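wait is this the right file?? whatever heres the structure
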């Protein structure tokens, strides 16, 4: 159905190899960190507590085994290719099952391709061959090993066009797509730019996304319960207090770039706060530090800040096309339904109490099951 695959000459194999010098430099910088004082009686409400971060940084410099994580990442086939002037890094795991469906997974911020590590093998090697996928996981331009960027202007729309070219380059005439956070925007635009080849889209969301993006929370009306009124006040407060990072990166990315690029403690604090406040349960510190290490070793903190600036100043927002779309909402409550599916028109709108902003890390089994369930309905449809 999807044809044989031969690696094009424009694609090269890639393997992560962080130098010993870079590892030594990280340890030295952490040891020389000038730590700020913690005001008495304050905690997470003002940002990452210094005792928490010092302990985490100490583990990063001494106990964290980057080489083990590097080997874990390198167990997945990785490649790089140049598209529209940018280097694009991606994992491409083909399923052994000939009828596997091509699937592109797009991560968000502050994350990387490593967010999907626990779902790639189950998707490509399921117990039931009828649920098999050929899995493609690109790193967003300027994120991780897709970088550094050579120019401004890498908007969500431009990234979606690059993904369409990547899937074409990989020989996939028909495919499906999933995305979360920024990746949800890229996935949605794939449906606009590549509708002739995208069979269906799958988006994941959570309440924190609605709260952080202005205008996403539903307007109150007479149908709201007292509990919903209380919850919407709580989420509005969460958004108001929590979107400072976004305002900085949307407006002055170069200013914050110096701290993110020069100080591992700064990069660690910037990301650890998001994982703490956006997750439904504590993310394993080795998992967190793997994500932070990818940003640190590649200098992604600076370039990802610029990507959010470009997204905020984009002028191209194409009209949606008639591509089927399903949603999985994690940490779901009635307010998310009111915001995202008020009329009940989204046929596949799965709601899970568990999970948060990083479902592939927090509840990978739920995400895998939902992807299988939703895309199962498109496997028997005629292919172009």
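ok assuming it is, sequence goes like this
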């Amino acid at each position: 159905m999807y044809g044989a695959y031969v690696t094009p000459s424009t694609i090269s194999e890639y393997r992560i190899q962080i130098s010993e010098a870079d590892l030594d430099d990280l340890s030295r910088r952490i040891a020389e960190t000038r730590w700020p004082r913690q005001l008495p009686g304050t905690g997470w409400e003002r940002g990452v507590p210094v005792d928490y971060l010092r302990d985490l940084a100490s583990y990063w410099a001494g106990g964290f085994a980057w080489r083990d994580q590097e080997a874990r990442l390198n167990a997945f086939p990785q490649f790089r290719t140049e598209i529209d002037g940018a280097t694009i890094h991606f994992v491409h795991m083909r399923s052994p099952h000939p009828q596997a469906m091509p699937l592109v997974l797009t991560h968000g911020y502050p994350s990387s391709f490593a967010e999907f590590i626990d779902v790639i093998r189950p998707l490509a090697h399921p117990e039931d061959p009828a649920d098999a996928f050929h899995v493609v996981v690109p790193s967003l331009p300027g994120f991780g090993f897709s970088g550094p960027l050579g120019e401004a202007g890498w908007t969500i729309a431009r990234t979606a066009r690059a993904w369409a070219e990547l899937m074409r380059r990989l020989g996939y005439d028909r495919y499906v797509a999933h995305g979360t956070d920024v990746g949800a925007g890229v996935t949605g635009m794939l449906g606009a730019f590549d509708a002739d080849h995208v069979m269906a889209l799958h988006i994941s969301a959570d309440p924190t996304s609605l709260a952080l993006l202005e205008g996403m929370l539903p307007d109150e009306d007479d149908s709201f319960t007292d509990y919903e009124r209380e919850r919407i006040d709580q989420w509005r407060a969460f958004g108001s207090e929590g979107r400072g990072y976004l305002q900085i990166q949307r407006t002055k990315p170069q200013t914050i770039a110096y701290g993110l690029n020069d100080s591992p403690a700064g990069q660690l604090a910037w990301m650890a706060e998001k994982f703490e406040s956006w997750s439904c349960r504590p993310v394993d510190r080795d998992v967190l530090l793997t994500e932070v290490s990818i940003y640190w070793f590649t200098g992604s903190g600076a370039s990802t800040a610029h990507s959010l600036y470009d997204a905020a100043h984009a002028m191209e927002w194409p009209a949606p096309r008639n591509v089927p779309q399903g949603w999985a909402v994690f940490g779901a409550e009635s307010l998310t339904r009111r915001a995202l599916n008020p009329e009940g028109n989204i046929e596949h709108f799965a709601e899970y109490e568990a999970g948060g902003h990083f479902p592939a890390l927090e509840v990978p089994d739920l995400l895998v099951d939902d992807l299988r369930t939703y895309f199962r309905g498109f496997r028997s449809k005629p292919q172009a």
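The chain is about 45% helix and 15% strand. so i think its the right one actually
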